[in-house]
Amino acid sequence: MKFGYARVSKEQQSLDIQIQKLKEAGCDEIFSEKASGAKDDREKLQELLNKLRPGDIVCVVRLDRLGRRMIKLASLINELHEKDVQFISLENNIDTTTPMGMLLFNICAAFSQMERELIKERVSAGVAAARAKGRKGGRPKSLDKKGLNKLMKLRNSGEFSVKQICEIMNITKSVYYRAINAKKEENN
């Protein structure tokens, strides 16, 4: 039997294109999920692996849909070989039943891991550069010192409910309570 596996990392991403390509490749059953490729405990992937029998084929659109780390990918491909299961990556033109396909798999997996490491390095360099310029990262605070003082005056006046203060200040209740707790800690 030919099984397809489709994965996207984020909930808002669509699986449609991958599923369509897997159907066109002749997959009898497709397992799909929305989970990070870096996660090892992917439910649908595990379900697929448990269903495999000798002679089956696992098909993915791209190698990185199966996983991000070279060690994990190599381990997974070896597990498939031990079960006498073929592996095909459509866009990478990898078919691990051939020596050339196995070589190509190892090369592509190494590049996939290298790309991930390069992304990490670029992100770290960007964060370091931003910090060097005085940026801390994250969202700007909802309340500056002036806003916090105004909130405390409204609260201490006793004339307004929490809901009314939030409407006046145009903040959420969670921002209100975080500000109150921060002020209490500051006074202690």
Q: What does the model show?
A:
- The chain is α/β, with parallel strands linked by helices and 188 residues long.
- It has two domains: 2-117, Resolvase, N-terminal catalytic domain (Rossmann fold, 3-Layer(aba) Sandwich), CATH 3.40.50.1390; 145-187.
- The chain is built from eight helices and five strands.
- The protein has helices at residues 16-24, 43-51, 63-66, 70-82, 99-132, 145-157, 162-169, 173-187, and strands at residues 2-8, 29-34, 57-60, 86-89, 94-95.
- A five-stranded mixed β-sheet has the order 2-1-3-4-5, sandwiched between helices.
- A hairpin with a 4-residue loop joins strand 4 and strand 5.
- The protein is elongated.
- It starts with a strand and ends with a helix.
- The mean pLDDT is 86.
- InterPro entries: Resolv_N, Resolvase-like_N_sf, Resolvase_HTH_dom, SSR_resolvase.
- Keywords: DNA integration, DNA invertase, DNA recombination, DNA-binding.
- Residues 1-134 form the Resolvase/invertase-type recombinase catalytic domain.
- Belongs to the site-specific recombinase resolvase family.
- Pfam families: HTH_7 (PF02796), Resolvase (PF00239).
